[in-house]
Structures are given as C-alpha cells and as structure tokens.
Design goal:
about 170 residues, disordered N terminus, about 0% strand, mainly alpha
Length: about 170
C-alpha cells in the first residue's frame, strides 16, 4: 500500500517548479528566475534527472542572454539523456531539441539549429495527439519553414511554445 501511495503521490519538486512557472507566465520573469535558481541550488547538479531536466528547461525561458538560454537548455538535454532509461522522458525530447534549435537560431548558428530541428522532428512521434503535441509539432514546422526560406529567424512566429510536460 505504501509503495502504491509513493507512485501516485505528487512530486513536491515538480509541484514547486510548476508554481514558479505560473509566476513566470503571469509576467514576473525576474522573480521566477530567482526562485528557479534557488530550486536549482537546492536540488544541485546531482539531483534527480527528471527534476534537473524540468528545472533547467524552464530556467532557460527566464534568461535574457541567448547564450545563457542555450546553456540551460543543454543542461536540460543532458539530464534527460541521463534519465532516459530510468524515467522514460521520450515526450520531452521534441521540445528539448526544438528549444535548442531556437537558441542556435538566436545565436546565428544555423547548422546547429538545423541539426536539433531534425532531431526534434524525429522525436515528435513520441508526442500525443493533444494540444501540447500539436503545438510542438506546429512550432517545429514553423521553424523548418523559416530556416528553409532564408536561413534565418526572420519573423516573430517561428519560436517554439514554451510549455513543458510535467
């Protein structure tokens, strides 16, 4: 019985991340960044990979500098890679690679962007046929079109949705 409760009990760290994400979506980016960094300090570089992946994925969204955003998105991918066997984060990969592609576009690194965009497209089969999955697939298509049109980021509509699976 205790084992069953443990499997169905909400994850306190993910709940805390979700609360901070709501703060960020409400428009308080600086406070969200501060609280997410506090959580990062708390869980540490060696915390559970799912926690590190989710936290880094959201921390990327609060960064002002594209290089810092890239660094956090790379941390998220690394944690997902570490957890893949144990946790099964296949549904994270399309968004992780899409966000990395967008980071590389911002930094003018088109070939790296195309590489991650290709990985995002390949991983998209793991997405459900729901709002989140459809949104990520649409963002992949928009970025593919933008990179195919002129090799650059161009307009405002190319970026990925910044919703994350929890």
């Amino acid at each position: 019985m205790a084992e069953r409760q443990e499997r169905t009990a909400p994850d306190a760290v993910l709940s805390r991340i979700g609360q901070v994400v709501m703060l960020h979506h409400a428009g308080d980016r600086e406070e969200a960044r501060r609280r997410l960094l506090d959580l990062w300090t708390e869980i540490g570089e060696h915390g559970q990979p799912l926690h590190r992946c989710t936290l880094a994925h959201y921390l990327a969204d609060t960064q002002d500098d594209p290089s810092d955003e890239l660094a956090w998105d790379l941390r998220a991918l690394s944690a997902a890679d570490e957890a893949e066997g144990a946790v099964g984060l296949r549904g994270f990969y399309p968004s992780l690679h899409l966000n990395l592609a967008a980071d590389y576009v911002k930094l003018g690194r088109t070939e790296a962007a195309r590489s991650h965009l290709h990985r995002a497209r390949g991983a998209a089969a793991a997405l459900g046929d729901d709002g989140y999955g459809n949104g990520v697939r649409a963002a992949i298509t928009r970025l593919e079109l933008r990179l195919g049109d002129d090799g650059g980021p161009g307009g405002e509509s190319w970026g990925p949705p910044r919703q994350r699976p929890m």
